[in-house]
Amino acid sequence: MAKQADASTRGQALADRPGWTELQRAAEELHAAEILLQDPVAPLRTTLPHLRAFWASVASAAQAFEASGSTQPRTPQDWLASDAPIAGVDAKLRQALAGHHGSLGVGEDELEEEALLVHVRDARRLLAGLEPELGGRPLRRRRLRLAIASVSVALLLGPLLAYTATRTEVPGTGPWRSSYYPDRMLESKPTVVREDDIDHDWDDRPPLEDIPPDKFSAQFDTCLLITEPVEAVFQVNANDGARVLVGGELIIDAWERDGKTRRRGFGSGFVTLEPGVHHLRVEYFESLGKQSIYLVASLDGGVPQSLSRDVLRYPGDLMDEDDPCASVSLDD
């Protein structure tokens, strides 16, 4: 009981100190900014309100416990530029902190994660210097409680957020899963849509609103249903380059010309298919100028033509790269 009374008395004594409440608020705002920077789905801009609130609270706390007892409002920049000593903060760190505070006015498109991480790190050093002025340790214990609470919330909400993320529905209809990349080599983050077919003549227009009209690429995936053994023939005609793969096997390579036997954008391929579900993938890139792609096939020995939707199935929004047609069967 005596220890509890001592702790309560000490807590009240700290609360009565000028600047303690403001410093607690600063610690909470800084911790919130740290948590958001660690969150891979939180936009960088979400840290700015907390960092601004941190600086406002720090300036209020510093003013509250200054020996002068001045009641004149001061901005963080005024305080950092003053001669007021700050324990553990040298001139170099003070200058860096002033720069961090000044950077809070940059546009959202200019935010950089590394700069914000340095900002938070230096702000934590400033807070560590100010804490001893007001007792220090209880504030650190408060941060520990906040950290434990944050981890608990993350553990509770993590599975829900992961489930929500995986349930993002690919827009459109049709058996083709089309991934459009804003680069020539299928490397950056794609925009994924469903399409009825992949025969396109875009002329000089972009394939999608957020994809450039030149120097883009695409990957088209579908599942081909075969009910009896066939000698399948595929042909592709593209401007600029294309590849066709069946079951992971490259049967047409018209990606680049080789100067002798291979012509970029045009080619034929043959493959024997047994009854079952076969993954069909077409890769395409556009360099400059007009763009188009056409795919035809013969599954019965006849003239190659566009694949009927009856023999194609959508591989799913969450297509497994190791087994793209795992969720499809001949009975579908």
From TrEMBL:
Origin superkingdom: Bacteria
Domain PA14: 171-311
Segments passing through the bilayer: 146-165
UniProt keywords, alphabetically: Membrane, Transmembrane, Transmembrane helix
Name of the protein in question: PA14 domain-containing protein
Organism from which the protein derives: Plesiocystis pacifica SIR-1
Lineage of origin: Bacteria, Pseudomonadati, Myxococcota, Polyangia, Nannocystales
